[in-house]
Predict the structure.
Amino acid sequence: MLDKKIALTVNKDVEANKAIAALSYAWILCLAPLLGKKDSEFAQFHAKQGFVLFLLSFATVVPFIGQLLGLAILAVSIIAILKTLNGEWWEIPYIYEWSKKINL
């Protein structure tokens, strides 16, 4: 019975915060859920990953390799937005490991 209550609470969090969590992958807008939705585990999960992608985007100023990185970040961001709007907890490879180190 307790597991059912926990699952229901998590589902409510996901449904209530899908839209703002999707902002996490729109460059600097990752700060909105990161700083504004501290009570939402779902929004924080995606905001931390979005923040890592935001920081990586500064490496795009490097010629050629930076441009390839920029395209990769764009592709990952689009996929992440779609998965977030579907209510998925997608752990982006490598990015997720770095995002776990963020404590705000």
User: Anything to note?
Assistant: The chain has a mean pLDDT of 85.
